[in-house]
Design a protein that fits this description.
Blueprint: E1 10-12, E2 23-25, H1 29-37, H2 40-51, H3 69-84, E3 90-99, E4 110-119, E5 128-135, H4 157-170, E6 178-184, H5 187-190, H6 192-203, E7 207-214, E8 232-236, H7 245-255, H8 262-277, E9 282-286, H9 298-303, E10 308-313, E11 326-328, E12 331-333, H10 342-361, E13 367-372, E14 382-387, E15 394-403, E16 411-415, E17 419-422, E18 429-437, E19 449-451
Parallel strand pairs: 5-6, 5-7, 7-10, 8-9, 13-19
Antiparallel strand pairs: 1-2, 3-4, 4-6, 8-10, 11-12, 13-14, 14-17, 15-16, 15-18
């Protein structure tokens, strides 16, 4: 049975797996309850508070307790500390450094700081890290103007609010893997916060499996075209890996996997979680690492070889982004909280939460999945074989399949074995394998290589 959209239940049909392979994928009740806790009213209070600091420009004051980037990041840290008081696995860290002038958008030594809350996994053998991010800084028309009010309600108060809200809800729970909640600084001046953490992660060999970057996720209408919709959100992801592409290019071209990089697999996963847990929200896959000729804090992580995607509202309004607050020709400019759709923001925050929770509850992915070729690659059956994951108890595995022209996985079939034989030609379909926990939480998919 072909499945194109996953909402709450997915019936998958066995082709050659045996009598126990037909399954129902159900909503995890714990995740469903967490999703229900995400509050539009709470998100509104976060954005109201962030805007109250006047400006959150990266080069604004860090010594004033009421205004500027320093006051804003201290308030974010205070929220994280409040959540940590009820969960000993949650720690809070201000990742600080001094950024020297760069002759472009940094003209003085800048006091930088990423606000982070780290919900450490309960399984000491599980080294995986999943990250949700937004950026706390804001700006007006002049990128060096650190004095004028830059409310940044949507860009990126919305993403920062989603990070804080996910930390609030998820701090009441424990997960085998580690989740990091981070509000970056320096995004508007050059992605400096994301670059700093990506370099730190690489230097310290962090096992980052996924980063969900949220940048501009709270408005439902566009400028110029005046499109209004609060039931779609864009998921940006790269197809070809930016990291070590030269080494991987031949294998990718040989197997036709230009659309199956790690970030693209993550984007498909996010879409599936949205369709499973968030009513009236359609995550739309966008086949770009970011918007046309632009970038966000996910980009440095992509460049360091991590799976990372950007979540952004469907209809951007450019009268709100990077604008001095003013009125011209009856058009109101400025990124003010009046223009946020808090119900839409709630759904987008819940999308992040559902994805993070399902990932952090899942086992490690299966090891070394291979398409078995035997003495020849000819034949109209496809045999797959893999090894159990490094860590985590598994109930079994999902074998995913889609036509080569399909954007999403179309079938999802369960097996308790570590090998399957399917009556479908490897010429016409792509395959992947996921580990499944005893509670039904799936790992990220792994596309098989080839084995003779």
């Amino acid at each position: 049975m072909r499945v194109r959209r996953i909402i709450s239940l997915i019936a998958t049909t066995c082709f050659a797996f045996g009598a126990n392979s037909q399954v129902l994928i159900q909503r995890d009740q714990v995740i469903e309850k967490m999703v229900a806790e995400v509050s539009s009213d709470t998100l509104r209070t976060y954005i109201t508070k962030l805007v109250s600091f006047g400006t959150r420009h990266t080069l604004s004051t860090t010594s004033d307790s009421r205004r500027g980037i320093g006051a804003a990041r201290e308030w974010i840290m205070s929220k994280f500390r409040n959540f940590a008081a009820s969960n000993r696995n949650l720690s809070v860290e201000l990742d600080k450094w001094i950024l020297p002038p760069d002759g472009r958008r940094i003209d003085v030594n800048a006091d930088m700081g990423n606000a982070m809350a780290i919900l450490r996994g309960t399984d000491t053998a599980d080294k995986r890290i999943f990250i949700i991010s937004g950026h706390m800084d804001s700006r007006v028309s002049d990128p060096l103007n650190r004095l004028s009010d830059a409310p940044g309600a949507d860009d990126d108060g919305s993403g920062t609010a989603a990070v804080i809200e996910c930390a609030r809800v998820m701090s009441g729970h424990s997960f085998p893997a580690t989740i990091i909640f981070v509000a970056f600084c320096g995004e508007e001046q050059g992605l400096f916060g994301g670059q700093h953490l990506a370099e730190k992660a690489t230097q310290n060999n962090w096992d980052i499996e996924a980063l969900l970057n949220n940048d501009i996720i709270g408005s439902n209408n566009s400028s110029e075209t005046n499109i209004i919709s609060n039931n779609q959100v864009r998921i940006f992801s790269e197809g070809l890996p930016a990291f070590d592409l030269e080494k991987k290019a031949a294998a990718i071209r040989f197997s036709g996997l230009e659309n199956d990089g790690a970030s693209r697999q993550l984007a498909r996963y996010v879409k599936e979680m949205g369709e499973r847990y968030i009513p009236n929200l359609d995550p739309v896959l966008i086949y770009r690492a970011d918007r046309f000729q632009r970038g966000g804090d996910q980009v440095p992580f992509i460049q360091h070889g991590y799976a990372a995607i950007r979540i952004t509202e469907m209809n951007e309004n450019y009268t709100r982004q990077h604008q001095d607050i003013r009125t011209e020709k009856n058009i109101h400019y400025g990124d003010l909280p009046d223009y946020i759709d808090y119900e839409y923001l709630r759904k987008n925050a819940a999308l992040n939460l559902a994805t993070l929770a399902n990932l952090a509850k899942s086992p490690y992915p299966p090891l070394e999945p291979k398409i078995e070729l035997g003495q020849t690659s000819l034949g109209n059956f496809t045999s797959l074989r893999w090894k159990p994951p490094l860590e985590g108890k598994v109930k079994g595995y999902y074998v995913l399949m889609r036509e080569t022209t399909s954007a999403q996985w179309q079938t999802k079939t369960f097996t308790a074995d570590t090998e399957v034989r399917l009556p479908f030609s490897k010429d016409n379909y792509f395959f992947a394998v996921q580990s499944v926990s005893e509670e039904g939480n799936e790992s990220l998919p792994v596309v098989p290589g080839m084995s003779r």
